[in-house]
Amino acid sequence: MLYWLVMKKVSVIIPVYNAVKHVATAVQSVLSQTYENFEILIIDDGSPDESIDVCRQFNDPRIKIIYQANRGLPGARNTGIRHAQGAYLAFLDADDAWLANKLEKHVNHLNNSPTVGISFCYSAFINEQGKFIGLHQKPRRLYDITPSYVLCRNPVGNGSVAVIRREVFEDIKFEGNLHGNLENYYFDENLLRAEDVDCWLRISIKTHWRHEGIPEVLTLYRITSEGLSANALKQLEALEVVVEKTRSYAPDIIAHCEKIAKAYHLRYTVRRLVSLGDGKTAVKLFNQVLVNYWRILLEEPGKTVLTGIAAYLLWLLYFLKATIRKPELST
Which domain holds residue 179? Predict the structure, then answer.
């Protein structure tokens, strides 16, 4: 009994919208955690499919389902934060999953690091069938995370990685009336994409809390095929919005690293486009990488050169196939 009293509760927030294929895997990955003092807040964000019917099949008193009209991912996260009872808050997207020791590792990290507000980790990429695809998200820097580094590289990586102290959100909350009543907000609901980068950036700039990573894969990040090429480009556009918002309250940081940040995010998008087979767009964006910050070739020559070669080879293959097809069409 004493053991349970000293264990800090973790509130796991799972926004759900059209996630019937994978939400059971996400919820089960939390129920299978070696660290057991948690609550699961499933936020039904007006989902039109049978996702919540799947969630109701779990019989565990630690699960609570909260219903709301659709407000988007940041709105669902905000609702979860408002209802959370835990000392630590964790987010899990409904199509991702955790390894069984994730919460245990992050809780120990935060318990032993009183100045760390955000604990993050590495991720492994899985496909729609849940199979590893051989790719990982491993930030180069786990310590000494500056605001500029958050903007340029987003070491947290994705929305299913972070475990965060409740006090952190108290320090960045703001009031608003987007839905007919005055509420506290944490993620910016005006940002339909890149709201996580905006949040981590505000924490880094406006509070004393540190970001710090665990050098282990603890999160499984699912890559799906639905609209990925378009999504990669929209994510890039969303970063531009975040840059302009940050410029309004931290102009010195933006002046210092705007072009650098754009170059690194462009390179990431190029790699995504290459994996999707869109060589034409990948080459166009790779050229923009060098226009914005050619020194990226000196800072990370291996990854940058390989990205460029892959983009140009894919573009060349596309060009050759198009050339071969032309005589066939004229006969």
Answer: 8-224
